[in-house]
Amino acid sequence: MRISVFGLGYVGCVSAACLASMGHEVIGVDVNQVKVDLVNDGKAPVVEERIGELIAEVVRTGALRATRDVREAIMESEVSLVCVGTPSEPNGSLCTTYLERVTEQIGAVLAERAGGRHTVVFRSTMLPGTCLNLLVPILEKSVSGTAGVDFGVAVNPEFLREGTSVRDFFDPPKTVIGELDPASGDAVLALYDGLPGEVFRVPLPTAEAIKYADNAFHGLKVGFANELGAVYQALGVDSHQVMDVFLADRKLNISPAYLRPGFAFGGSCLPKDLRSLIHAAQRADVSVPILANVLPSNSAHLQRAVEMVERTGKRRVGLFGLSFKPGTDDLRESPLVELAERLFGKGYDLRIHDANVSLSRLLGANREYIETRLPHLAQLLADSVDEVLDHAEVCLVGTRDPAVLSALPHGDGPLLIDLIHLPDADTRRTEPGYMGLAW
């Protein structure tokens, strides 16, 4: 394919050189004449493993050249990769100035381009909605045409680590294609023909969001490991030995476990152990802002459910689920008990059903916990699913009990606030009266 790459920084330079080495005909575009001259001389404008030899080879064969001329690049290509920077503004917001400028320039040339559909592919990191709400309108205004019809638009985030970016390009962890329409996605897919890794074709905002999910998690992992290391050093424990064992657990730790948006966590272990670890860090004068804010974050997530109920304006509320985990009657530090307590305290007329929870069977710490946190539980518990449904104007679903799931109405009946991402959530979200907690 004939490809133009806008921006010859790390991402653009590596993308251009690697695509050229795969047999594509690539034109690099940059406003910096020094970068353009370096590429045309077969030299890399960035310091990166293998990039120097790669650029020298593809320039020698004529597969890659560079220019400052936007018109020349667009006229001589079928696909444009936009790889310009999106730095932070002083207040932390995303700077889209370079994206907007390049998009306007591309649109102006597309307006006069004839023969064959051109696809604009945004590879720059940008917040969800930037492409659809900002860049597509710029293109449509410049071209006086319709995106997805007169020209293609896609979002193709990169997952290249500086220092190993050439290796990462040829052996990607995944390929994400945000497509406005199937033809736009097909054009991007053709760029990477033959590369390994799973391909995900998703809506434009999803592709934009995936990049942020990745980078936020990477930062969180580094911070988490460093905070643990600082605490364990203070406690005289070998942190690397701890993490060797931690990383060996592929069932719960390095796995998809606990990484699906849902309701707040609770139970007899997680809150207690987090508090103990944070207290130990404080006694050792070790600052652990990530760990110290896990429980406040959890509480804030629970509060979102309360606020969703408040926004409905309804007063009769039903709650399905009470124990902290399905298949148990353990109520200790259950987030559903906390939710019930907050709603009851705000004066809501509440009914609760959990098939595993019977006041007469609660013993020991379980009973003591309920008598302390929700002493009026007896008057709130309902014996059946139907009793809750008949009572409630709005129902919160915090269980996957088959009896509850099969009884939940579609469309008619009480409003549903889904706390757990129901098995049919994707269908229900198109129905009136359904609200997902974080989806």
UniProtKB/TrEMBL annotation:
<feature type="binding site" description="in chain A">
    <location>
        <position position="258"/>
    </location>
    <ligand>
        <name>GDP-alpha-D-mannuronate</name>
    </ligand>
</feature>
<dbReference type="Pfam" id="PF03721">
    <property type="entry name" value="UDPG_MGDP_dh_N"/>
</dbReference>
<feature type="binding site" description="in chain A">
    <location>
        <position position="325"/>
    </location>
    <ligand>
        <name>GDP-alpha-D-mannuronate</name>
    </ligand>
</feature>
<dbReference type="InterPro" id="IPR017476">
    <property type="entry name" value="UDP-Glc/GDP-Man"/>
</dbReference>
<comment type="pathway">
    <text>Glycan biosynthesis; alginate biosynthesis.</text>
</comment>
<dbReference type="InterPro" id="IPR028358">
    <property type="entry name" value="GDPman_DH"/>
</dbReference>
<keyword id="KW-0520">NAD</keyword>
<dbReference type="GO" id="GO:0047919">
    <property type="term" value="F:GDP-mannose 6-dehydrogenase activity"/>
</dbReference>
<feature type="binding site" description="in chain A">
    <location>
        <position position="162"/>
    </location>
    <ligand>
        <name>GDP-alpha-D-mannuronate</name>
    </ligand>
</feature>
<feature type="binding site" description="in chain A">
    <location>
        <position position="332"/>
    </location>
    <ligand>
        <name>NAD(+)</name>
    </ligand>
</feature>
<dbReference type="Pfam" id="PF03720">
    <property type="entry name" value="UDPG_MGDP_dh_C"/>
</dbReference>
<dbReference type="InterPro" id="IPR014027">
    <property type="entry name" value="UDP-Glc/GDP-Man_DH_C"/>
</dbReference>
<dbReference type="InterPro" id="IPR014026">
    <property type="entry name" value="UDP-Glc/GDP-Man_DH_dimer"/>
</dbReference>
<dbReference type="GO" id="GO:0042121">
    <property type="term" value="P:alginic acid biosynthetic process"/>
</dbReference>
<keyword id="KW-0016">Alginate biosynthesis</keyword>
<protein>
    <recommendedName>
        <fullName>GDP-mannose 6-dehydrogenase</fullName>
        <ecNumber>1.1.1.132</ecNumber>
    </recommendedName>
</protein>
<feature type="binding site" description="in chain A">
    <location>
        <position position="272"/>
    </location>
    <ligand>
        <name>NAD(+)</name>
    </ligand>
</feature>
<comment type="similarity">
    <text>Belongs to the UDP-glucose/GDP-mannose dehydrogenase family.</text>
</comment>
<feature type="binding site" description="in chain A">
    <location>
        <position position="211"/>
    </location>
    <ligand>
        <name>GDP-alpha-D-mannuronate</name>
    </ligand>
</feature>
<feature type="binding site" description="in chain A">
    <location>
        <position position="226"/>
    </location>
    <ligand>
        <name>GDP-alpha-D-mannuronate</name>
    </ligand>
</feature>
<dbReference type="InterPro" id="IPR001732">
    <property type="entry name" value="UDP-Glc/GDP-Man_DH_N"/>
</dbReference>
<dbReference type="InterPro" id="IPR036220">
    <property type="entry name" value="UDP-Glc/GDP-Man_DH_C_sf"/>
</dbReference>
<dbReference type="GO" id="GO:0051287">
    <property type="term" value="F:NAD binding"/>
</dbReference>
<feature type="binding site" description="in chain A">
    <location>
        <position position="10"/>
    </location>
    <ligand>
        <name>NAD(+)</name>
    </ligand>
</feature>
<feature type="binding site" description="in chain A">
    <location>
        <position position="263"/>
    </location>
    <ligand>
        <name>GDP-alpha-D-mannuronate</name>
    </ligand>
</feature>
<dbReference type="InterPro" id="IPR008927">
    <property type="entry name" value="6-PGluconate_DH-like_C_sf"/>
</dbReference>
<feature type="binding site" description="in chain A">
    <location>
        <position position="30"/>
    </location>
    <ligand>
        <name>NAD(+)</name>
    </ligand>
</feature>
<feature type="active site" description="Nucleophile">
    <location>
        <position position="269"/>
    </location>
</feature>
<feature type="binding site" description="in chain A">
    <location>
        <position position="125"/>
    </location>
    <ligand>
        <name>NAD(+)</name>
    </ligand>
</feature>
<feature type="binding site" description="in chain A">
    <location>
        <position position="218"/>
    </location>
    <ligand>
        <name>GDP-alpha-D-mannuronate</name>
    </ligand>
</feature>
<feature type="domain" description="UDP-glucose/GDP-mannose dehydrogenase C-terminal">
    <location>
        <begin position="318"/>
        <end position="425"/>
    </location>
</feature>
<dbReference type="Pfam" id="PF00984">
    <property type="entry name" value="UDPG_MGDP_dh"/>
</dbReference>
<keyword id="KW-0560">Oxidoreductase</keyword>
<feature type="binding site" description="in chain A">
    <location>
        <position position="215"/>
    </location>
    <ligand>
        <name>GDP-alpha-D-mannuronate</name>
    </ligand>
</feature>
<dbReference type="InterPro" id="IPR036291">
    <property type="entry name" value="NAD(P)-bd_dom_sf"/>
</dbReference>
<feature type="binding site" description="in chain A">
    <location>
        <position position="260"/>
    </location>
    <ligand>
        <name>GDP-alpha-D-mannuronate</name>
    </ligand>
</feature>
<feature type="binding site" description="in chain A">
    <location>
        <position position="35"/>
    </location>
    <ligand>
        <name>NAD(+)</name>
    </ligand>
</feature>
<feature type="binding site" description="in chain A">
    <location>
        <position position="266"/>
    </location>
    <ligand>
        <name>GDP-alpha-D-mannuronate</name>
    </ligand>
</feature>
<feature type="binding site" description="in chain A">
    <location>
        <position position="11"/>
    </location>
    <ligand>
        <name>NAD(+)</name>
    </ligand>
</feature>
<feature type="binding site" description="in chain A">
    <location>
        <position position="86"/>
    </location>
    <ligand>
        <name>NAD(+)</name>
    </ligand>
</feature>
